[in-house]
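Now for a specimen:

…
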Amino acid sequence: MVTKNSGQLTFLTLKKLAQKSVDDTLIKLKKANENYHNAKVQLDVLNNYYIEYQQKLANALTLGIKGSELNNFNAFITTIEQGITQQQQLLITLNMKQKQITDKLNQCQKNLNTYETLLEKQHQQYQLQQNRLQQKLTDEFAQQQLARRILNEY
């Protein structure tokens, strides 16, 4: 039967907490990746609108356009440009967030690996102690058997 000392229990608790931290951070990273992807899709939509309305404006200018319609086109295109700029800034922010979460994940994983290594070393030390104890008991038993044989011979 393996008895766990308080140090081992402490490391087991720390390992569980580190694993939970890794799991929680992975969930956050997944969400950050989804947010980035969604923002990228929105930027692509805005860029497509921009191209589409630039082409519509070019066609309208070729065919002739009223001044008020030209103003409306220009205002709408300006609005799309502003949306594109805002979306690009959002992507930069979301990318930084992804990097921060990835850095945190790496640190959490490093902590988890440390606790796993410490637990493994403790287990190896325990096994070594158990092997030494078993060898000692075996040696003592062999000595007692030899002593009995010697006593029985005389």
Observations:
- The mean pLDDT is 92.
- Residues 72 and 78 are 10 Å apart (CA to CA).
- Helices lie at 6-63, 67-153.
- DSSP finds two helices and no strands in the chain.
